[in-house]
Design a protein that fits this description.
This protein is of the alpha+beta class. The chain is built from 3 helices and 4 strands; from the N terminus they run H-H-E-H-E-E-E. Strand 3 and strand 4 form a beta hairpin. It starts with 14 loop residues before the first helix and ends in a 5-residue tail after the last strand. The N terminus is likely disordered.
């Protein structure tokens, strides 16, 4: 059952996620920049994905299984994920994925520095 406070019916990131996820990665980027030996990290797409996924695309389930979850400290601050969904990192983007079908429900582009 979708969250009653979620007007998109579970098909998009919640407003809390929309500000907390970028804030977390901006703070991490600032911490790395203050480090004495900070290096720029090039974010590339994982094998099996030619272009950044867009909302409505379907990822092959074997590719989706190899994607990384959000970092643990961030997951602890976020509300629990809805059933059958996962928040995953793809290059510099964070996607909301339906686990059963591989459908990309929402994309937060360029969030990870």
């Amino acid at each position: 059952m979708p969250d009653v406070r979620d007007p998109a019916g579970g098909r998009a990131h919640r407003s809390t996620e929309r500000w907390l996820i970028p804030y977390y990665f901006q703070r991490k980027h600032a911490d790395r920049a203050r480090a004495s030996r900070a290096k720029s990290v090039q974010r590339s797409l994982p094998a099996g994905i030619a272009t950044a996924p867009r909302k409505g695309d379907t990822l092959p389930l074997d590719v989706a299984a190899r994607l990384h979850n959000l970092p643990g400290p961030l997951l602890r601050d976020l509300p629990p994920a809805r059933p059958d969904t996962a928040r995953l990192v793809v290059g510099a983007d964070v996607i909301l994925l339906r686990r059963s079908s591989g459908e990309v429900l929402d994309v937060m582009a360029g969030v990870i520095n």
